[in-house]
UniProtKB/TrEMBL annotation:
Protein name: Uncharacterized protein
Keywords: Acyltransferase, Membrane, Transferase, Transmembrane, Transmembrane helix
Subcellular location: Endoplasmic reticulum membrane
One Pfam family here: MBOAT
Stretch forming the signal peptide: none
GO biological process, one term: lipid modification
TM ranges: 24-41, 50-67, 101-125, 179-200, 221-241
Molecular-function GO term, any one: acyltransferase activity
Mode of membrane association: Multi-pass membrane protein
One GO term describing the cellular component: endoplasmic reticulum membrane
Superkingdom of origin organism: Eukaryota
Amino acid sequence: MNIILTPLSQVLFFITGVEVQADQLIFLSTLFISLIGSFAYKHFLQPSSVPLEVQLLLTSLFGIWIFYLNWGWYIWVPLFDVVGSYLIVRWTSPLVSHKYVFLFTMSVLSACHLHTLYLFMYGVAGDTSADYTSPMMVITQRLTSLSFSIADGFTRNPDSLSDNQKQHAVRKIPSFIEYFSYSFCFLGIMAGPLVFYNYFMECMKGGKEQKQAPSALVPVVMKWLVGVGFISCYVVGGRYFPALRNA
């Protein structure tokens, strides 16, 4: 992919005078690919035409591929995080599994932040752009929220739960493919937002809310325009207020 994006970044620099790194173009390209993927998902991967297991598998594999395009073999980090968390949920009591998952995932996330900080501080050649902490934070949110929802569903008296907890409580341990797809679904792997497990599965299975949902064209276009506006402010503003001034 760098074979294509490196010349493109040079062309953009020639036209605009703004240097855009290849890894930044990859990130933007994968966001656009995700948008195309969401269109394909909405029109071709509906539960009425595709088995749920296939739907879950394809959305998770697509999310893994998007992560790999951006950060290469760092993909082993979220895979380790998700598989480790699932083993904890599967083989420990719901009374304590949420605590273990929280400690495990936060330890992995902390290690990611420290590793990225080390790369930026000491300028390891070829790795200074390996900041994969944003998707790791999204995955950590999903894993911890699901583990606490499982604890609410298995260990708490329903009368003691708030309305929000009742809505999100999970009363069945997810299968591996359900857990895996929830963690890696391409619809939010890059920048979120957090979606609770029950709502995610309802959308995957084709709930009533999904059937009655209005067209998403206008909200999506508006979000993209806002994003382009912020990117423009960052790129243009960065030329006049470089980050080195903060040093």
